[in-house]
Amino acid sequence: MLESGDRESRIGVLRRLVAASATAGGLVALLLVPAVGAAGLGVRKAADDFKNMNVERITRFPSEKSVVYAADGTPIATFFDEFRDPVRLDQVAPVMRQAMIAIEDSRFYEHGALDAKAVLRAVTRNAEAGETREGGSTLTQQYAKNLLLSNARTKRDRQRVTATTFMRKVRELRYALQLEQTMSKDSILEGYLNIAYFGAGAYGVQAAAQRYFSKPASKLTLPEAALLAGITKNPFAFDPLLHPKAAKERRDIVLARMAELNVIGAAEQRRETARNVHLSPKQPKGGCSTSQVPFYCMYVRAEMIRVLSKGRPERLKEAADRLQRGGFTIRTSFDTGIQEAVQHAVDTRTSASSDRVAAQAMVEVGTGRLKALVTSKEFGTAKPKTTLSLAADAAHGGGIGVSAGSTFKIFTLLAALDAGLPVRTSFPSPGGMTIGGFTTCKGRELPAWHVGNSHESQSGRFTMRTGTWGSVNTYFAQLQKAVGLCKAVKMAERFGMARGDGSPLQEVPPQVLGSNEVDMVHLSAAYAGIANHGVYCPPVSIVEATGPGGRPVRLDTPERQCRKAVSPWVADTTYDIMRGVLGPRGTAKGIDKPSKDAAGKTGTCENFSCAVFAGISRDLASSVAYWDYRGGFRYPVSGVYGAGIPAEIWSASISAAHRAYRPSVHLPDTRGMSLGSALTTLDRAGFRTTVSLGPVTSHLPKGTVAFTSPSTQITRGGTVTVFLSNGRAR
Fold it and tell me: pTM for this structure?
């Protein structure tokens, strides 16, 4: 006879088994029985909700990394919330697929969304144990759960997806049913391998292979595949970097299961089990701090967030999240060769440990495309490093800017010529004078202003040419009065100028001498507008962007934004006058001219606390600032003036940039071509190519080229990504 304790134990097991079986039956019933047959309003509503579930909503945008590319197709930065690098199933080693199926769902190709045998087996074993030791979830159910978790955007969403409730399980099963109805088994396996979490920040098998073994998923060996397949059950407990012993034990369980299923032989299992775990870890690099060009990366990140938020401040956080998770491909105007040239020029003339900093931007004439962005400081939080992109404005990761110095005189010169004043306009210009009669654009009268010349200038009578060449302060004070303060300020604004913090230019008489703090990116773009015969193109770093599946992101391309600021005659005359600044009578006569058409303007701040040089040469415009970034005029530095270090850096960098500069060329139109024909066409045109992971929605025939990224222009020799059509669009 059974003892009373044994009898109660057996009865308890039986009760748990019956209860678990009833739960499993109820689960299936709720999935399959129509709402009219459900008992109670709550269950009826749940049944309606499940009937209306749309699996496309959770499979459309899985979290993926966003990648930033240079003009030649070289990746320069990666953004991710979850480090994931999706791959096709045929890019995953067969042994990896076998290991995952063996340990997670050995009957995966034999059952539908629900594996009745696995459920009953799990119910029985868990009931006997009195606790949950085994799950009956299919691989498709796990894929559904991962998709729901990946698409959870709020804390409440995540709690709902991970809650240990009956309804959560039903929700997963309902989605699993839809997945089985709309996707092939191979597609489900591919999706699961790309979304599963493998610990150590690696999402998806490709990221995991790189994270632990520094190799692609296609190169995984048997023991490596078994190790990765074992991790997904508990990514923290079986993380081989944190818990190597537990990870090995779990790997050996996977090997044993593969041997049990005859995927591998017994001898192979024993041999691999006897081996230790060998890792070659690689830390994933994401964000601007790990980019080779962190300051340019910051500019692009800020610009992409602005695009995604459509300029609405309340959407900035949402846009930043989309960038981290959205799988964007971002093509920029960044030129690796030009960046190296500029960086070398800055590094050889400044010290990264100095309190003073040099910052430079280089822009392409005619497009506004930002080619290079350099700061003499290294990126970082520890002194003397900086996390500010000091050549950019505050909206793009920079600071408040730096005084423009006499580089701003050019806008008053433009305003005077635009107003019809002749180039020969002259004034007697003493070493110092007090001048009044200035009014703002709203008609407010301003106090008289005392202005004096610097040591760069001389007293006497000057014209527009000689006054610009000698940078004569008292001449430009009088020219500003003649044309009007408002017109001078408005002319600067026509060429895109604002203060570095984003506020409007201050309408004060000293603005002609550069009292407004500005950034080097916009100053470079303004000078490029002069070289472009008066057509100003705002600075832009992103040339083209695509979202998940290759969908284009709408951008304001530089060509669309370009606008006429002044007539060609006004711009060309100003350009011609600026050439003399580098001539024998100019303030920059001591520097080497990078080309015969080089032109520019020196600028020195009050008390010699900062200096700027802005100039144009052939297809490129660039501005360089050199100052003590600890603050304003408090730290005067002897010998800091525009014709010194800034002009030297500008001359050296733009000369080297000419040698590295490769203008963009038009891509052949390959839309509608077969993949083979398109690759041959692009190869003959001198471009490298890659093919996108999956097809995109397009009206073109299935398997033909839907579009390329970039679509129209790229640096010769660059890499082009080809997207193939699924043929489903009208």
Answer: 0.78
Question: Phi, psi at residue 710, to the nearest 5°?
Answer: -65, 165
DSSP annotation of 445 reads B
Nearest-angstrom CA–CA distance, 561 and 556: 7
CA nearest 232: which of 63, 96, 92, 100?
A: 100
CA distance 542 to 560: 13
Closest by alpha carbon to 642, among 584, 597, 585, 582? 582
Question: How far apart, in whole angstroms, are the C-alpha atoms of residue 561 and residue 525?
Answer: 12
| Beta-carbon count within 10 A of 249 CB | 12
Based on the number of CB atoms within 10 Å of its own CB, is 707 exposed (0-12), middle (13-18) or buried (19 or more)? Answer: buried
- Find residue 472's DSSP bridge partners: none
How many Å apart are CA 30 and CA 156, to the nearest integer? 24
| Tens of pLDDT, residues 691-717 | 876 677 788 898 899 888 887 778 777
Question: Which of 700, 692, 679 minimizes the C-alpha distance to 721?
Answer: 692
Q: How many CB atoms lie within 10 A of CB 515?
A: 17
Pairwise CA distance, residues 643 & 657, whole Å? 20
Q: Is 577 within 8 Å of 410 (Cβ atoms)?
A: no
For 168-222, the pLDDT digits (tens) are 777 778 888 888 888 899 999 999 999 899 998 888 999 999 999 999 999 999 9
d(CA 275, CA 263) in angstroms, rounded, equals 19
Q: Which of 414, 318, 333, 316 is nearest to 367 (CA)?
A: 333
**Residues 589 and 583: beta-carbon distance below 8 Å:** yes
**What letter represents residue 259's amino acid?**
A
Contacts of residue 56, defined as CB under 8 A and 6 or more positions apart, other chains included, come to 182
Neighbouring CB atoms inside 10 A of 382's CB total: 7
Instruction: Note whether 319 and 308 are within 8 A (CB).
Output: yes
Task: Tell me the pLDDT band of 721, cut-offs 50, 70 and 90.
Answer: confident
Cα 90 to chain centroid distance, Å, stands at 29
- 533's CB contacts (< 8 A; 6+ apart) are 568, 571, 572
Question: Tokens 């992971």 label which residue?
Answer: 693
CA 656 to CA 590: how far, in whole Å?
18
Residue 351 has pLDDT above 80, yes or no: yes
Burial call 660-692: b when 16+ CB within 10 Å, e when fewer: bbeebeebeebbebeeeebbebbeeeebebeeb
